[in-house]
Amino acid sequence: MFLRLLWESFVRQRRRKLLAGIAILFGTTAVTAMLALATTIGDRIHKELAVYGANIVVYPKAEQLAVKVGGVDIKPATGNAYLKESDLSKLKTIFWANNINGISPELPLQLKHVFPDGTTPISAVGLWFHHPLGSGAATITTGASELHPSWKLNGSWPTSKEEAVIGSSLSNRLNLRTGDNLPVIAANTQNLHITGTVSTGDENDEKLLLPLATAQFLNNTPDAVSRVEVSARTKPEDSFARTDPDTLSPKQREIWYCRPYANSISYQIREVIPGAAAEQIRKVEQTEGTVLARISGLMWLISIAALLAASFAVSAAMATAILERRGEIGLMRSLGASKASIALLFYAESGLLALFAGVLGYLFGSGLAAWLGAHIFAGSGVPAIAVSTLPATSIFIPVLLPVVVATALIVAIAGSTPSIRSALKMDPSSVLRANA
Amino acid sequence: MSEAKVVAEIKSDWPANTTRPDCAVISLEGVCREYAGRGDVVRALEDATFSIVAGEWVAITGPSGSGKSTLVNMLGCLDRPTRGELKIDNVDVASMSSTELDRFRAEKIGFIFQQFHLIPYLSAVENVMLAQYFHSMTDEKEAKAALDRVGLGHRTGHLPSELSGGEQQRVCIARALINNPPILLADEPTGNLDAANQAIVADLLKDLHRNGHTVVMVTHDPEMATLAQRRIALSHGKVFCHPVGGPIVTLRR
Ligand SMILES: Nc1ncnc2c1ncn2[C@@H]1O[C@H](COP(=O)(O)OP(=O)(O)O)[C@@H](O)[C@H]1O
Ligand SMILES: [Mg+2]
Predict the structure, then answer these.
(1) Tell me, what's the ipTM?
(2) Model confidence at B161: pLDDT above 80
(3) CB within 8 A of A304, min separation 6: which ones?
(4) Does any CB of chain B come closer than 8 Å to the CB of residue A3?
(5) Distances in Å between the alpha carbon of A170 and those of A147, A203, A388, A389, B118?
(6) Whose CA is nearest to atom 21 of ligand 1?
């Protein structure tokens, strides 16, 4: 009987319920979108960064120290201190070797593009593309191509010393396309074949990307590497992570060393690579953090406003809906219905409405989140990978459904409470009389 | 002659009322009901003192606005007296909590309304089952039997809007009797009906009365009023109790 009553009264007064339902729908859509973005995209960015993004950078120690003798800088910051490419395999021998997902060594250099009637300077950088690291079963394939999955390549990565890919801006500026040949000169000369254009979203768009070995040859610096980006799975930094291991007791130091903090891994890298400095990169996480904070702050505001509006709309709709039905309430009272059982009926009714609207809001909100993710946040500083690689289905986060439905229920219950209370306060005898 | 005196005279006229107070299903002692109107107080019922005995059929008569509905609603515990003591089955209504009153209403009272007050979106049988639902448990067979008893066994699935006024009132009666309450309160049950339907309803009420229900019936119709054993006349909120023909009290239980 309860269900019959509930259903029959639920399908009545459709216009009012539609109004209340739409209000809840808007509210829950906003909340779903907000939560989906905050969790999925946030999660995803973290995951992508953890898997692909570099979080440690290794560079020659001399680079950071300006060596001055008698006031004269004998080691300029741009100087020619290099790491050895041949040392890089040692990275796979450190304690946390298995946490190293990939590395990308770099060797920047200046080239000249040779024309029949002159030359143009070109910035270039030597990189690894699908390069093996380590030995035996532990060998991984890594390089710039792996560490920067957000780079959009049109064509293919270089597979031989004579091949290169060109940054998109440089490609436009010099009108060089995939398939073109490009003779270049530095310390040595090389005729390069362009196998693709790449859009990186950073300064590499202005560069020619060469295999590291080609760069070393052109620069006449065999085995040289200026900088290595390392992507390692790390434990989030805490205050213990930031302590200087040399100030710790041997036991504490041991513990510190054996935790996969970015700092401990950097420390271990410094141990195996002679003359290397290794540091954690925080910049990316910070930008990501501020962008996310900005987005979610705004979304929270919208959500709270939407939910408040929804609960006012529910309250208004329920007030008229219940007023129209006060005769029924009076009758039920005359049949001995307690206030509680009538309240239950009306609450169940708005609860049912909330359920429908909440589920719909969840679906709409998930869609909205996918759309927002694809259209608005792309290029806003959130790494494109986090957004562009989201398959449409992955935005449906099942855990959010109960959360969103519960929110809808709370809104509906809060919104209908004032009218239900006032309806129950009405004197049933005068209600029955008024209906004469 | 003051009102209070009239009441006293009638009470002394009627031994059952004083000698067997345990039989009084309903007893009122100086019951007043006032409504706080704009500025002044509306006295809908003033100083009502009388009793209704179990199994009695009482007609409440009086001009419009004389407080008949107010009285019936208080008897049905839908409303509480502003002052005075109202006892139903020897329990002081004022001493009961509102949940107790709800329970009391579900078990002891069956309402029959002039406007029927059927739920428009429930079928006839569901309207009857609603009373079962708030009383205890629904039983469709029993609800259909009740409709059968009022001659609507063939219309159980119809919505109120598909029924005539007389039929709707019979659904209302079936609903009122479904939980077998000792007291039936009928507020102008035939007020909206034509003569033929009035006769049907009158027969049903006679039947219910014969089966031991206490019937308190508000009516304008003198013919209906003659069916009752006693008439309580109201005028401007004041009560006059009349023995109406025949034996004053017939106890059938
Ligand atoms: N809720 C109320 N507020 C104020 N006055 C009321 C209310 N209910 C009834 N009254 C007044 O009480 C008097 C008795 O009403 P009622 O019992 O409905 O009379 P009857 O049923 O005899 O026509 C009337 O004057 C009516 O206006
Ligand atoms: Mg009336």
Answers:
(1) 0.85
(2) yes
(3) none
(4) no
(5) 22, 10, 24, 26, 82
(6) B69
